[in-house]
Design brief:
- With 556 residues, the chain is α/β, with parallel strands linked by helices.
- Helix content is 35%, strand content 19%.
- It has 19 helices and 25 strands.
- The strands form six sheets. Strands 1, 2, 3, 4, 5, 6, 14, 15, 16, 17, 18 and 19 form a twelve-stranded mixed beta sheet that branches. A four-stranded mixed beta sheet has the order 20-22-23-21.
- The relative contact order is 0.16.
Length: 556
């Protein structure tokens, strides 16, 4: 079979105006970036707010493994499948980050015959949203240093500047730096560092803001440093919120592209799924719900992180009501959760599949806690045997959910017809009784405990007195109503990435808490979380190049 990029390059893409017309978006509301991608104007987004919402479908997955799960591919395939069975559907995805594209993943626009295009543009500079976020973030960093240099009227304690810099690239050498070296003219030396752009609070804000006014309000609320008396200094104190909003004006507008089958897709925003909520923008999702009868979106990593944050942060804050959930699993990934080494995944092992299904079962049970009906999609690989597939289906039947084989990677929408029909039936059934996991007014530490015990199946949450005291101070300062955003490894229900399957009775250590006052959540850091990834020994960048005809090779 052809590679992803070869399939994408052979696609018969329609002019973006034709894709917009399918959603009844007039040409004047499209801001084209070339022939096949465009932004949607802010005026149009505002004008459709009064329309009735379509059905919202979340695609999530089991805990990720090196074997792959194919969540984005399934999201695209399901969107195409819904259109194939006669539904008016579109998809909403996050934008890929340059760092992973040149690091380990090589691309993040789906795969096989379930992709969004133009694939190369989406994976690289796209419409410049990430560059705008990087610029806005680093402008604020420059304004902090400049304020301190010119007298420090806000009395910022230089030891407590919390705002770092960002770059949309994996560069471990920038994780910890000393800045302002070189003499008096360059300011006051201090320790700092870089995160990857997707880890910026500005990225999370862009994806939670409802309009430009809300965007500027949230940007102004960001805490960037503390004074010697431990009071917070915000971006608004530095009068930075206006200029940052100017840089982000176009970035807030959703990006319209298409699938290989010429179905509409919004790709907008991309917050880190560890330390942020890991979902595409609220603006894109809410606009899509006004334009289509069915909207398929995804959340980052496994359901214990992605789906929980989608429900407890995005849906809570945006007033969204999901109608159905698709939980993606692969036979290979289930075998890895059952203890099989990666090099042995090609051999049939029904016993390991059944053992690994405990991970899938835990996610199914967790989704049910939110009151949303679910179906399992078995993302098919050619090495899967009939016995292994039947084992997954039998396991799911005992849980009261269907497990449907989907072959969209090889067959496009033809491979998701059965899945699409089942999802449409669930969404239309009215069975969703969605409710977040915890109440807004629950104390912050109890919110953390609720997630740890009910989603991760932990026995306890471990936190030093300093962490608990910090949470109580934020409650006293008026932040107690915020949801919590758990930052932990994506590979396990526990904080140990090696502990696969469905562990229970473990402890969740919270080593640090951070207040994202602009985004509107409290981050609980559990274990070691990397906000600036490094490159592998052989990065994908080594194989990305232009061929003799000037076409990009190596994205996959």
């Amino acid at each position: 079979m052809a590679s992803d990029i070869e399939i994408a390059r052979a696609a018969d893409m329609k002019p973006i105006q034709e894709i917009g017309a399918r959603l009844n978006i007039p040409d004047e509301a499209l801001l084209p970036y070339g022939r096949t991608k465009a932004k949607i104007s802010a005026d149009f987004v505002e004008n459709v707010n009064g329309r009735k919402d379509g059905k919202l479908i979340l695609v999530t997955a089991i805990n990720p493994t090196p074997a792959g799960e194919g969540k984005t591919t399934t999201t695209v395939g399901l969107g195409d499948g819904l259109n194939r069975i006669g539904k008016n559907a579109m998809i909403c995805l996050r934008e890929p980050s340059l760092g992973p594209c040149f690091g380990m993943k090589g691309g993040a626009a789906g795969g096989g015959y379930a992709q969004v295009v133009p694939m190369e543009d989406i994976n690289l500079h796209f419409t410049g949203d990430f560059h705008a976020i990087t610029s806005a973030h680093n402008l604020l960093a420059a304004l902090i240093e400049n304020h301190i240099y010119w007298g420090n009227d806000l009395d910022i304690d230089q030891r407590r500047v919390t705002w770092r810099r960002v770059i949309d690239m994996n560069d471990r050498a920038l994780r910890s730096i000393v800045c302002s070296l070189g003499g008096v003219a360059n300011g006051f030396p201090r320790e700092s560092g870089f995160d990857i752009t997707v880890a910026s609070e500005i990225m999370a804000i862009l994806c939670l803001a409802t309009d430009l006014h809300d965007l500027q309000r949230r940007l102004g609320n960001m805490i960037v440093a503390y004074r010697r008396d431990r009071t917070a200094v915000t971006a608004r104190d530095l009068e930075a919120d206006g200029a940052m909003t100017v840089l982000l004006k176009e970035a807030l507008q959703p990006n319209l592209v298409q699938t290989l089958e010429n179905n509409p897709a919004f790709i907008h925003g991309g917050p880190f799924a560890n330390i942020a909520h890991g979902c595409n923008s609220v603006v894109a999702t809410k606009t899509a719900l006004k334009l289509a009868d069915y909207v398929v979106t995804e959340a980052g990593f496994g359901a214990d992180l992605g789906a929980e944050k989608f429900f407890d942060i995005k849906c809570r804050k945006a007033g969204l009501h999901p109608d159905a959930v698709v939980i993606v699993a692969t036979v290979k990934a289930l075998k890895m959760n059952g203890g099989v080494a990666k090099e042995d995944l090609g051999t049939e092992n029904v016993k390991a599949v059944v053992k690994g299904c405990a991970n899938l079962g835990r996610h199914v049970e967790n989704v049910k806690q939110f009151g949303v009906p679910a179906v399992v999609a078995i993302n098919h690989f050619t090495a899967d045997t009939e016995a292994e597939i039947q084992a997954v289906q039998a396991y799911c039947a005992e849980l009261g959910v269907d497990a449907i084989v989907a072959t969209h990677w090889a067959d496009g929408s033809a491979g998701t017809e059965t899945l699409a029909k089942r999802v449409a039936m669930l969404a239309e059934s009215g069975a969703s009784q969605f409710a977040p996991l915890y109440d807004d007014h629950l104390p912050l530490f109890e919110k953390i405990e609720t997630i740890a015990k009910r989603i991760y199946r932990a026995n306890e949450v471990l936190a030093d007195k300093s962490v608990r005291d910090q949470l109580r101070r934020w409650e006293a300062d008026g932040f107690g109503h915020l949801p919590v955003c758990m930052a932990k490894t994506q590979y396990s229900f526990s904080t140990d990435p090696q502990l696969r399957g469905a562990p229970s009775g473990h402890s969740v250590p919270v080593r640090e808490v951070r207040l994202a006052a602009g985004a509107g959540f409290v981050v609980a850091i559990c274990g070691e979380i990397m906000t600036m990834p490094g490159l592998p020994r052989i990065p994908s960048a080594n194989h990305i190049r232009l061929d003799e005809e000037g076409r990009i090779e190596g994205l996959f």
